[in-house]
Amino acid sequence: MEEQAKKRIYSAIQPSGMLTLGNYLGALRNWVNMQQEFDCVYTVADLHAITVRQQPGDLRRQILQTYALLLAIGLNPEKSLVFIQSHVAAHSQMAWLLSCYAQFGEFSRMTQFKDKSAKHADNINVGLFSYPALMAADILLYQADLVPVGEDQRQHLEITRVIANRFNNLYPNVFTMPSAYIPKTAARVRSLQDPSQKMSKSDPNPNGWVALLDKPEDIMRKFKRAVTDSEASVRCAPDKEGINNLMEIYAAVTGRTMQQIEDEFAGKGYGEFKTAVGEAVVELLRPIQQRYNDYMNNRDYLEQTYRAGAGAAEAIARKTLSRAMKKIGFVW
Ligand code: TYM
Q1: In CATH, what is the architecture of 206-293?
Q2: Spatial distance between the Cα atoms of 59 and 45, rounded to a whole number of angstroms
Q3: pLDDT digits (tens, 9 = 90+) for 70-121
Q4: How far is the CA of 195 from the centre of ligand 1 (A)?
């Protein structure tokens, strides 16, 4: 395995639709912070996106938008590798290798596969099923030590470890064993309309999720309409999923503890609290939206940056792919 001074971080995000506040608080914010301490590799996972049907024009636009948003939230391409997955062919090549070291039964048990098969019953394609092999390829190609993700990706990280372990037992010293890095607050931001579900851009009710590019008035409206209970005291309790979710969001955005939030809003109603959460989110997103617009107006810079990122990523990925190919016995 490659010797590195700093620990390597790898993570990726799909470009399907608009990025949500859940993506940001659960994962992306950590990506930014980790750049201080670690050697980071971040990817727009465009190959993963075609497991569900995409309109070509929409997909193209969303890939670019997602890349621009990653820069806008504070990923620094001078410091970290930030690129588009399909630009580095080794991801698809490694995914094939790994799929031969993963078991049908293991992949059949993936919650995301079961959920997406139920949602897209007319298109249960093989890519949807073998999705975790591509995700394992992403992570293992870069010898990642830590993978910052939200709670919903934990199972995919576990299967990645199973595959890496199986491969290393057959062919020693090919892959670093990665660990999930899941935040303590906001690991699972919930829908504002149905707090039993995670906040997701595929939610058909747009009031359930906040996009990073939503206008301030839409953000305020969504928080004001957020589903809560009838008790009306800002206090976290196991059965108050709606208010817990809003408190978690407020905690993650302002850095306050749950106790501090309860104290701040003691004797105040839900209306006042929801307004405060909405305003905090608007202020969090304002500078991100400004920078996003600047990047989208500078397509040349974007292209130059994602091409350079892919070039540097390719060099690392090729090395791991080549080692794996040789160990298996290919003439390579
Ligand atoms: P994706 O694109 O669905 O989500 C990107 C990241 O956002 C986190 N996330 C959330 N966190 C908290 N609350 C939520 N409501 C919420 N919704 C999403 C996700 O956990 C994720 O960290 N398969 C991955 C993309 C991927 C990947 C990888 C990730 C491809 N290859 C390799 C890590 C390593 C996905 O679909 O994430």
Answers
A1: Orthogonal Bundle (1.10)
A2: 12
A3: 999 999 999 999 999 999 999 999 999 999 999 999 999 999 999 999 988 9
A4: 18
